[in-house]
Automatic annotation (TrEMBL):
<dbReference type="Pfam" id="PF00389">
    <property type="entry name" value="2-Hacid_dh"/>
</dbReference>
<dbReference type="InterPro" id="IPR029753">
    <property type="entry name" value="D-isomer_DH_CS"/>
</dbReference>
<dbReference type="InterPro" id="IPR006139">
    <property type="entry name" value="D-isomer_2_OHA_DH_cat_dom"/>
</dbReference>
<dbReference type="InterPro" id="IPR036291">
    <property type="entry name" value="NAD(P)-bd_dom_sf"/>
</dbReference>
<feature type="domain" description="D-isomer specific 2-hydroxyacid dehydrogenase catalytic">
    <location>
        <begin position="69"/>
        <end position="379"/>
    </location>
</feature>
<keyword id="KW-0560">Oxidoreductase</keyword>
<protein>
    <submittedName>
        <fullName>Uncharacterized protein LOC110412179 isoform X1</fullName>
    </submittedName>
</protein>
<dbReference type="GO" id="GO:0004617">
    <property type="term" value="F:phosphoglycerate dehydrogenase activity"/>
</dbReference>
<feature type="domain" description="D-isomer specific 2-hydroxyacid dehydrogenase NAD-binding">
    <location>
        <begin position="165"/>
        <end position="354"/>
    </location>
</feature>
<dbReference type="GO" id="GO:0051287">
    <property type="term" value="F:NAD binding"/>
</dbReference>
<dbReference type="Pfam" id="PF02826">
    <property type="entry name" value="2-Hacid_dh_C"/>
</dbReference>
<comment type="similarity">
    <text>Belongs to the D-isomer specific 2-hydroxyacid dehydrogenase family.</text>
</comment>
<dbReference type="InterPro" id="IPR006140">
    <property type="entry name" value="D-isomer_DH_NAD-bd"/>
</dbReference>
Length: 388
């Protein structure tokens, strides 16, 4: 009876049901909250624990990637002076002024929104991408901006594994296999192997390195481009892989710079986009780029949707020049289930889950939680990379 009453009470104030069932609110004087648009009519007020201790408030923007806020809440459930809320995207501008730390996710924080963040100390991503944050404006308002390095949390490894999944799914014709199962056919379709293929990793950062480490045992040739190849780049590898001059020369068979992307695309059987998104890389995979690829080559993107020019991709799928497309990120998100691109059999699309694994999300939730505790205590911030 008591539990039932509390659940009914919790539902009236927008408490995350997961936490109510987990009894988190019973062990803490502070409720962690998940707001719907209707709930936002409730004013978010400053509250104290034991009437004299201030609360550090953490804002997660929007409902997508729910494990980010849920895992962070779980990590912080023993600290009643840290409040974790997730607020609908459209309501963030009206309530961002009540928070000290913001986890941006896929929210765009422009100058208008940032001008209202008068208590904000830190904006961070639950991952690495910060293209939605106006960093210059944040700096002017004295707000620090940070990302969570992917090599330390398992995020890069998770994304690399998704790239492997997409490549293998395209090579073995995943969609056609499902059709064969439904039609009770055996021994078809005829797939291909990774063995002997040339894979072009465009953007050899943390994800690119993790991908190369996983590709090598498959007997592929790896070619990669990077803005600059630093001679003392430290690449963690197995002892069986020798490191020369601080660089693992066995990972990449041929290295190039940004100016080599068309040449490398022409040589590759599979192109994997691992670039960060910025003014220089928006739409970099355009008609000219795809035309330079081998006929029948595969294109995989686990970075940002806007790296690919939509019309160019659609055109080359229709012409048959592009042999297959595997994407975890799209031009518009959430992806339109009625998009014409989905009519092709040689397409695999996943809902932006490359980095969403138990390992990486628990690790990143710990980073966010630790940073919130450090902000509260006024101690140096650790586990993040400040960009301003």
């Amino acid at each position: 009876m008591f539990l039932s009453c509390v659940r009914r009470k919790a539902s009236t104030v927008g408490v995350n049901k997961y936490l109510v069932h987990g009894l988190t609110c019973f062990t803490s004087p502070l409720l962690h909250r998940s707001f719907s648009s209707a709930d936002m009519s409730l004013k978010v007020e400053k509250r104290d624990v034991d009437n004299d201790k201030p609360i550090t408030r953490v804002l997660f923007c929007g409902p997508h990637f729910p494990a980010s806020q849920n895992y962070t809440r779980e990590y912080l459930e023993k600290y009643p002076y840290i409040q974790v809320d997730d607020v609908p995207l459209k309501d963030v501008p009206d309530h961002i002024g009540n928070y000290h730390l913001c986890v941006v996710k896929n929210m765009r924080l422009d100058s208008n929104v940032l001008s209202r963040a008068n208590q904000m100390k830190l904006i961070m991503q639950f991952g690495v991408g910060l293209e939605g944050v106006d960093i210059d404006t944040a700096t002017k308002h004295g707000i620090k901006v940070a990302r969570i390095p992917g090599d330390a949390t398992g995020n890069a490894a998770s994304c690399a594994e998704m790239a492997m999944y997409l490549m293998l799914g395209l090579l073995r014709k995943q969609n056609e296999m499902q059709i064969s199962v439904k039609q009770k056919k055996l021994g078809e379709p005829v797939g291909e192997t990774l063995l002997g293929k040339t894979v072009f990793i465009m953007g050899f950062g943390n994800i690119g390195i993790e991908l190369a480490k996983r590709l090598k045992p498959f007997g592929v040739k790896i070619i990669a481009t990077k803005r600059s190849w630093v001679s003392n780049l430290q690449v963690p590898v197995l002892k069986a892989c020798p490191i020369q001059n601080g660089v693992d020369d066995d990972l990449v068979d041929k290295k190039g710079s940004h100016g080599d992307i068309y040449e490398f695309a022409h040589k590759a059987d599979i192109v994997v986009c691992c670039l960060s998104l910025n003014k220089e890389t928006v739409g970099i995979v355009n008609k000219s780029f795809i035309s330079s690829m081998k006929k029948g080559a595969l294109l995989v993107n686990i970075a940002r949707g806007s790296l690919l020019d939509y019309e160019a991709v659609l055109h080359h799928l229709e012409s048959g020049h592009l042999g297959g497309l595997g994407i975890d990120v799209a031009w518009t998100e959430p992806f339109d289930p009625d998009d014409p691109i989905l009519k092709f059999k040689n397409i695999i699309i996943t809902p932006h889950v490359a980095g969403v694994t138990e390992h990486s999300y628990r690790s990143m939730a710990k980073v966010v939680g630790d940073v919130a505790l450090q902000l509260h205590a006024g101690t140096p911030l650790t586990g993040i990379e400040l960009v301003n």
